[in-house]
Design brief:
Elements lengths: L2 H35 L2 H41 L1 H39 L6 H42 L1
Amino acid sequence: MTKTDIESYFNSEKSESMIFMIVAVAAILCAIFFLVMKKPAFTGAAIPLLVVGAIHFAVGFSVYRSSDRQRTDVSYSQDMAPGKIREEELPRMEKVMKYFVVLRWVEITLAIAGIALFFVFREQKNFWFGLGIALAMEALFSLGADYFAEKRGKEYQEKLSGFVERFKS
C-alpha cells in the first residue's frame, strides 16, 4: 500500500460523496416541485425522492466531511504508527464491507418493490405508480453508486491487508 493508494481511495470517496450530495439536492428539489403539482402520481414520487434524497445527502456529507481526516490519519499511521492500520483502519473497512452487503440487499429489495408498484399501477397512474417509479430509480441509483464504492473499498481493504501482513513479518 502506497501513499498514492491512500490518497486515491479517500479522494474517490470524497468525489463520490459530492456527487451523492448533488443528486440528493436535485432529488429533494424535484420532490418539492412534485408536491406543488398536487397530482397523485407526483405526490407518490415525491416521498422516496425526499426520504432517500435526505439519506443520500446525510451520508454524502458525512463521508465528504470525514474523508480528509481519515486520509491524513491513515497516511500518518502508515509511516509513524503502522499498528493503527491493523487495529483501527482494517477493522473499520471490514465493517464497511459488511455494511455494503446489507445495503445491496436493501437496495435490491426496494428496486424490486418499486418496479412491482410501477407495473401493478401503471394503468391508474396513481400515488402508488409514482411512488414505484421514484423508489425504483432511487434504489437503482444507490445500487449503482454503492457497487463502485464497494469495488473501491474491496481494493483498498486488500491493500490494507497486504500492508498488515508485510508489517507482521
